[in-house]
Amino acid sequence: xxxxxxxxxDFGTMLYDPGYYNTAVxxxxxxxxxxxxxxxxxxxxxxxxLAEKSSFxxxxxxxxxxxxxxINQLNLWTTKIMNHTFIHENLIQLMKSFRYDAHPMGxxxxxxxxxxxxxxxxxxxxxxxxxxxNKLLMxxxxxxxxGKLPTIAACAYRHRIGRPYNNPTDTLSYTENFxxxxxxxxxxxxKPHPTLTRALDKLFIIHADHELNCSTATMRxxxxxxxxxxxxxxxxxxxxxxxxxxxxxxxxxxxxxSIGTKDNIPNFLQLVKxxxxxxMGFGHRxxxxxxxxxxxxxxxxxxxxxxxxxxxxxxxxTELERIALSDSYFIDRQLYPxxxxxxxxxxxxxxxxxxxxxxxxxIPRAAGWLAHWVEELQDPDLRIFRPRQIYLGKRGCKYVxxxxxx
Length: 406
Ligand code: ACO
Prior knowledge:
Elements: E1 31-34, E2 39-42, E3 45-46, H1 47-53, H2 56-65, H3 71-82, H4 89-96, H5 104-118, H6 124-127, H7 135-160, H8 174-183, H9 194-207, H10 214-223, H11 229-240, H12 248-259, H13 265-273, H14 292-308, H15 313-324, H16 328-332, H17 339-349, H18 357-377
Antiparallel strand pairs: 1-2, 2-3
The structure holds acetyl coenzyme *A.
Acetyl coenzyme *A binds next to helix 17.
């Protein structure tokens, strides 16, 4: 296209595609989505089956290495990751220096970014070796990121509630250890409830990847410069933090709380139709039918409610869904609940404060980011991401000294 020019000054034919709506920037074998039929598969495996039968670490392996692990591979993978759960004392000091009420997502992003200073071997410029040609070195960064992210997240949570940070333990599973670090009751005997561990594991599985969502596209964009993966993951987490992406489940909760009672739903939806409000947790760039992850979550919600009792916001959410799905405004625009509509309610029922929601999204999504990192760096077609623009601004202006300006 770029070679199609009318004159030498012409910079060539380009596709104007705001938000990359119709642009494919890579070929991938990781995640398949059919948005019209509500299908999601990781490496060919349906998400429903993985959520039911697999575990988060097994799914992370599948995403990154392309196949389900055998028993030896899974044991080694689990051991490697759990051996990397401790974080450096200086990183703990850095986290302790944040304001008492720092948003945990800000703490996570900064701490992940700071990890690049602890592991210079991952920076090709500093290490003097091309880590992208060294599988062992790449794997080490993967173990570290997946191992340390829950610890950073738990420290951010403990910081927010003004409690001492807890050390990880490798005697529990990945999700058990995370829950343990958040709420440890005693030095010896606390083991999280299996229903909550399983619910969190399912949440982690369904959040692990979603092809080129904004944060994964960010991962690929940043990694295309060959920067270290800690910096790239921190940038991706930054993209995830936004209320239109990973911050949406936090926004859903705030929306449901502000609606307050079922009687206020019609008025709220009126404001949405007047475009004065947005129905958070509804709509998706790719799904033009019910998000399969939202279906799985509705079931997880029941399991968690059975243990902990029903969250009153659930009534507002189900009624909101019922009314919206029978309203032509939402039907015509193919707006259905997405993964964020129910995840926030589950997290809230499990006792997570609202500002932890994007953090809970980032932990599993790191597996997807790393799968794309590995795939991208092995792609012979890899080029640095560099979109173009349509320039509409002024040209050839003459500089006027400050004293001469009106
Ligand atoms: N509430 C009200 N109207 C909406 C919503 C919504 N949640 N989503 C889309 N629309 C409307 C738009 O106003 C537009 O209407 P129009 O044709 O009258 O102008 C139409 O539907 C098409 O919407 P777009 O903005 O073109 O959809 P896009 O694909 O760009 O946006 C997005 C997708 C950002 C997810 C959007 O649906 C949204 O903002 N949803 C709420 C936030 C949310 O839940 N995000 C989580 C997404 S899932 C995830 O990131 C894990």
